[in-house]
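thought: fold this chain, then report.
action: predict
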Amino acid sequence: MKPEEINFQKNDQFALTMIPGAFAKKMRTCLIWQFMRFLSINIKMLVVVSKSH
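observation:
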């Protein structure tokens, strides 16, 4: 198996499905990181909406 294929798994529905690595799993479950992402996305949305009004 090639090194770039390590995070991929074959199953019945998809030919290749990417499986998150350990770092991605930790970032998805870290509440502090999720809150920071939430704030940054909301700020971006406010900027876009303020430009249109």
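thought: worth noting. Residues 3-52 form one domain.
final: tokens above.
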